[in-house]
Amino acid sequence: MENNWQPSDVREWIKHDPSILDRNPELKIYLVPDGDVKKETKYYNNPTEYGGRVYQSIEEAKYAWGLDMQVRAGEIPLWIPQVAFPLPGGYKYIADFLVFDWKLNFKIIDVKGERTRVYINKKKAFKACYGWDITEVNTKNVTCKRKKRSV
């Protein structure tokens, strides 16, 4: 016999008889509304919230935290996340961070785990259009060097 139930039907069924979940725990997946199912991201990054903003990855959120620490320490006056720059052809480049120093010079920072062809093309178009360099923070093959303890 074929089952033609929709997730909304199962949710209604569970709502009227919650004891069904005791007998069939696999039905708990139907408690999540259809639009709320977490989808796997294209590059397996984990969107992460920090400071009331959702960043594209854990590494990006960590970098934002580091920038906040630099502001608190007085090393930089301010930084701005997710700054959009229009590019020719109706495209746009969104920089992860715009970081200012005390002379109000700025650096454009992009936290990268994967350098895609689209990103490389946008980076070239950005350089041609604005003449500014993008500083990439690579999180893919970062190694942490430990200091040797003196005995």
Features:
151 residues, alpha+beta, 2 domains, four-stranded mixed beta sheet, two-stranded antiparallel sheet, 4 helices
Number of separate strands: 6
Task: Summarize the helix and strand pattern as letters.
Answer: HHEEHEEEHE
The N- to C-terminal Cα distance equals 73 Å
What about the largest sheet?
4 strands, mixed
What is the helix tally? 4
Strands in their spatial order, largest beta sheet: 3-4-5-6
Class from helix and strand fractions: alpha+beta
Number of domains: 2
| Spatial extent as radius of gyration | 23 Å
Helix % is 25-40%
Describe the fold and architecture.
The chain is an alpha+beta fold and 151 residues long. It folds into two domains: 8-36, no CATH class; 48-138. Helices cover 29% and strands 24% of the residues. It is built from four helices and six strands. It has helices at residues 7-16, 20-23, 58-73, 117-130; strands at residues 48-50, 53-55, 78-86, 92-100, 106-112, 134-138. The strands form two sheets. It has a four-stranded mixed beta sheet with strand order 3-4-5-6. A two-stranded antiparallel ribbon has the order 1-2. A hairpin with a 2-residue loop joins strand 1 and strand 2. The longest helix is centred in the middle third of the chain and has 16 residues, at 58-73. The chain is elongated, with a radius of gyration of 23 Å.
